[in-house]
Structure prediction request, 66 residues.
Amino acid sequence: MEQSYEQSLKRLEEIVALLEEGGQPLEKTLELFSEGTALISSCSKYLDDAEQKITKLLDCGEKDAQ
Prediction:
């Protein structure tokens, strides 16, 4: 099941906090880093999709105003 943008961002913040805290075994650090990079990609896709929707809405609004 795919997480929402907000859920992904929250988990990413948790991962960053854990990595900044340190003290994790190398294997766990690598797992967290890998999960974090996947979440960054997912969040970026959400934002790109939202930007495209907003652009379409603005374009439609401009055409309606003419």
In short: The chain has a mean pLDDT of 93. Residues 26-65 form the longest helix (40 residues). The radius of gyration is 18 Å.
